[in-house]
Specification:
Strand order of the largest sheet: 4-5-6-7-8
Distance between the termini: 29 Å
Structural class: alpha/beta
Order of helices and strands: EHEHEEEHHHHEHEHEEH
Shape: globular
Number of strands: 9
Number of helices: 9
Length: 276
């Protein structure tokens, strides 16, 4: 068995829609999860369509939180779409905050880089991320690459950077658990200002230990920390589009065998929790 559990679609900053993702995955893996930034309805759509493609879906979302002047992303996974209203309300709030951030970034782009960004297309998205902003800048004819924009323009500590949310990790974890979900620390390798040991004092259920940016030693470390904390591990390519320099293509990495079985069992146990 094979699975991967960190995939973005056009509902946030991915290039493929749900059906395009499902068509690509058909016959190539067993389990998957769509985890758009702060928007869960695309994952619910994939969950409802998965059987048509001979796939098994887990409902997921990547929740944006902020701690010690740094983004801390949390992947949330659910057995089904029941009891998600409290989470959906919070995600709607986060989406509204992202719109406010868009206008702040737009102003800074003009002030510091003479980029007069037309936000019309971005406002059609359910979730506006820096990735979608970057691609829109390029599509409007400005001579940048994705790497340039994240390194020099809208990346952390750059002049046009602004954080997406002030939601704290504990608030998100508590809300995920309230909605009968599993909370997983996303891509711990990207943490720079927070120590992973401090973050893992929070009641996470799992760690995204397998991730394309990891070195072999980092993956080993994250797996050891998960074992020590009695947390399950997941795998994500953090797919946005093919050839993405920041992330990986679909099926580059996968979760297999015992690790996959443990994760699926944890998800299936959520049903038991709901019924008891």
């Amino acid at each position: 068995m094979r699975g991967e559990f960190h995939i973005h679609t056009t509902y946030s900053d991915g290039a493929l829609n749900v059906d395009e993702i499902l068509k690509f995955l058909k016959g190539k893996l067993d389990y998957f999860s769509i985890t758009d930034h702060d928007y869960i309805d695309g994952s619910i759509e994939a969950f409802n369509k998965a059987k048509d493609y001979s796939l098994k879906a887990i409902i997921g979302v990547e929740v944006s939180t902020y701690l010690n002047d740094e983004s801390v992303h949390i992947l949330a996974y659910f057995k089904d779409d029941k009891d998600l209203e409290p989470l959906k309300e919070k995600l709607a709030f986060i989406a509204s905050e992202r719109v406010k951030r868009l206008y702040i970034i737009k102003s800074r782009l003009m002030e510091y880089f003479n980029i007069d960004l037309d936000v019309t297309n971005l406002l059609q998205k359910h979730t506006i991320t820096r990735g979608s902003i970057a691609r829109e800048i390029i599509s409007q004819g400005y001579k940048y690459t994705i790497e340039d924009l994240f390194k020099n323009v809208i990346g952390v500590d750059c002049k046009a950077y602004y954080p997406s949310t002030k939601i704290m990790p504990m608030e998100a974890i508590n809300l995920i658990h309230k909605c009968h979900g599993l909370a997983v620390l996303a891509h711990p390798v990207l943490l720079k200002k927070n120590k992973i040991d401090d973050i893992l004092l929070m009641p996470f259920d799992g760690i995204e230990a397998i991730y394309p940016a990891n070195t072999e030693s980092e993956e080993k470390l994250f797996k050891e920390k998960a074992h020590k904390k009695k947390l399950f591990i997941t795998c994500g390519n953090d797919f946005h589009y093919f050839g993405d320099p920041k992330h990986a293509d679909l099926l580059t990495l996968g979760l297999y065998d015992e690790d996959l079985e443990i994760f699926i069992r944890k998800v299936n146990e959520l049903k038991w929790m709901l019924e008891n």
